[in-house]
Amino acid sequence: MNQKKPFVTLEQVQEIVKKYPTPFHLYDEKGIRENARRIKQAFAWNPGFHEYFAVKACPNPRLLQILKEEGFGCDCSSYTELLMSEAVGQVGEDIMFSSNVTPAEDFALAAKLGAIINFDDITHIDFFEKIAPFPETMSCRYNPGGDFKIENEIMDTPQDAKYGMTRPQLTEAYRKLMSKGVKHFGLHAFLASNTVANEYYPVLARLLFQTAVELHEETGAHIAFINLSGGVGIPYRPEQNANDIMAIGEGVRKAYEEVLVPAGMGDVAIYTEMGRFVMGPYGCLVAKCLHHKHTHKEYVGLDACAANLMRPAMYGAYHHITVLGKEDAPCDHKYDVTGGLCENNDKFAIDRMLPEIDDGDYLVIHDTGAHGFAMGYNYNGKLRSAEVLLREDGTTELIRRAETPEDYFATLDVTGVFKK
Length: 420
Ligand SMILES: *Cc1c(COP(=O)(O)O)cnc(C)c1O
Hints:
Layout: H1 10-19, E1 24-28, H2 29-42, E2 50-54, H3 61-69, E3 73-76, H4 79-87, E4 95-98, H5 104-113, E5 116-119, H6 123-129, E6 137-141, E7 148-150, E8 153-156, H7 167-179, E9 184-188, H8 200-219, E10 222-227, H9 245-260, E11 269-272, H10 276-279, E12 283-294, E13 298-302, H11 311-315, E14 321-323, E15 333-338, E16 347-354, E17 362-365, E18 386-390, E19 396-400, H12 405-409
Parallel strand pairs: 1-18, 2-3, 2-11, 3-4, 4-5, 5-6, 6-9, 9-10, 10-11, 13-15
Antiparallel strand pairs: 1-12, 7-8, 12-13, 12-17, 14-17, 15-16, 18-19
Helix pairs in contact: 2-9, 4-5, 8-9
Bound molecules: pyridoxal-5'-phosphate (PLP).
Pyridoxal-5'-phosphate (PLP) binds near residues 232 and 275.
Organism: Butyricicoccus pullicaecorum 1.2
Keywords: Decarboxylase, Lyase, Pyridoxal phosphate
Protein name: Diaminopimelate decarboxylase
């Protein structure tokens, strides 16, 4: 059982809000760094191991810098993610470009930066040829179809996923790329999302290792790396157990020893592209209770809304909530915790048992470090919040300012209505 204790206290938040009013996303530098070191330790058995942080999960350059200091690269899927990675000093093969439905400009920039390009589809080979010369190292994304099962439990349905190439296409793609001069190959797959099961990576790794051995035998291609991509989950709910990254690393090692080593492929590097596992638990959304409403249900209304954190509205996702200063109070009140969008799905929690909330209380919405701020939007003219870093020494640093109305109107400069 996971206690779900916030990494920030009421006293700290009372200090922070003097400089940066709510709502804001807060990130825990200490937690990020400690977790990054555990990940590296879990895969230390593989000398080529490299984590490419999935930039889309939390595209903030200050956080990318911290991860770079910990030795992580960047996994990008768009032009601006590539620009941001370049801006923090990521170059060459420290950038993985795992995109889909890729525009020509994006491929051109990835090639210019020397990123490793991971083709989502076989037709991208001809598309790419018109844009840039083929690098010596390239990767292909695999979609085995069917259901992805762990011990007969269906984890996800690759047959319905738009990503990746079929098994015959992989062979054809490798052959074609070899004929274009590509010398070193990667193999990538992302088959289940937010898995809270230590078996996900090991089962996926075994599948990819077996496929890599076959591809090597069929085509003679040199397989340089296997990219396990993302999908390692976090316990959003207090009753869930966290993944044990050491057990995950060990499970992948076992598959490696059993499949790759006997095939004479013991030099293959393991790459990962984790987003959620790297950042999720080390961010939270801090918001203030503005209103109470007693109608057919009991509502507490916050100064944050789904535009700051879309997951509950979009997926019905659970995010744990702590009322700061009332950590030990009994959860004897049932609330819907809402934002102010004109959308009834703008609820951070429905029928949630919480301590009695007063106007002005600060609430921590947990686990927003990945796919939190990143999925924000401007519906109802709501402005994106600030992002604040809680440094290891307890001080804070503004790492993104809150949007202003001027930011919101900036792209309307073409109309003449909002001229500077
Ligand atoms: C989203 C994504 C990731 C990161 O996924 P998480 O579930 O956040 O770990 C990695 N690689 C690719 C290609 C992705 O689309």
